[in-house]
Amino acid sequence: MVSMQRKVNQIGPSTLMVSLPSKWTKKYNVKKGDVVNVNEEGNSLQINIENSTAAKKKATITLNQANTTLARYYLAAAYRAGIDEIEIEIPRSTIRDEKQNKEINVHEFLRTALDNFVGMSIVRNTPNLCVIKEIAAMKQEEFDTMHRRIFYSLLVTFDDLIANIQSGNSAALQHMYQHADAQVNKFVDYCLRILEKTKSMKPVLYNVLLHLEEIGDGLKYIAKQAALKKTDKSCLALVQEMKQLFMLVEKYYYTGKEEVLVEYESSKRAFRKNLSEAEKSNDAVILLKLNKMMSQTAGIIDAKLLMHFNE
What we know:
Blueprint: E1 9-10, E2 16-17, H1 22-27, E3 36-41, E4 44-49, E5 58-62, H2 68-80, E6 85-89, E7 94-97, E8 102-105, H3 106-114, E9 120-126, E10 129-134, H4 142-167, H5 170-179, H6 182-197, H7 203-228, H8 233-255, H9 258-277, H10 284-310
Parallel strand pairs: 5-6
Antiparallel strand pairs: 1-2, 3-4, 6-10, 7-8, 9-10
Helix pairs in contact: 4-5, 4-6, 4-7, 4-8, 5-7, 6-7, 7-10, 8-9, 8-10, 9-10
């Protein structure tokens, strides 16, 4: 972040004006008549560009020796970074999918992967090149709605996981492993992109989103483990307890009420004790994931407290 001082001038009986830095306006091609967003944050004002003539960010990704996992990493990073146009160079017609242990059609893979990029679309598709562009401008006010949807999606996933473990539905649990976190990842990526595009990236919000993404991953791998073998009642009870803990996290995150924080801390201590007593269970993988998820909830609580004291 570059800090600079500007003089406040008066241009009318009740109008004060601060000029925009010339270097900044040239960098982002801001011209007379363009519209900018001015957001108030305590004693700070944040200016974000919304004009169509602002310089567009472009990136090129070459799928040379990358498998599907690495390709997703590259694409997600470019999307989260707020890139407006991504050129994907395709040197070969297939790409290695380690999960399926086989080569798959690279264009089919890209179509599936890019479906999760809200606001972007494929505008050019040739045997050796795929170009995606932002076709719908995102707005900062969409952040809160999308952020809340992540919490909702995770609660729905908790409910589905518990129901499928109770019924012993291995097929449904395997399906959850393959698809359950897709919605969460989609919303997380979009929120991170909004923060980057609007230049309102706050480390605290960034960390909250990553904690939520990790909780989604934890639920995914618990579903996978439960699909492989029957989960005992003690582990099921712990999953249910983790859901209640997460509900308290959501409640505190959006209300900031001290009594909710007290209840969360008490519930977390009880959960940790129950987790410790269940260590001899044969579902060690599930216990490990639950322990990590507990840490992620604590991270969200810490972030909310930081936001509270920074208000």
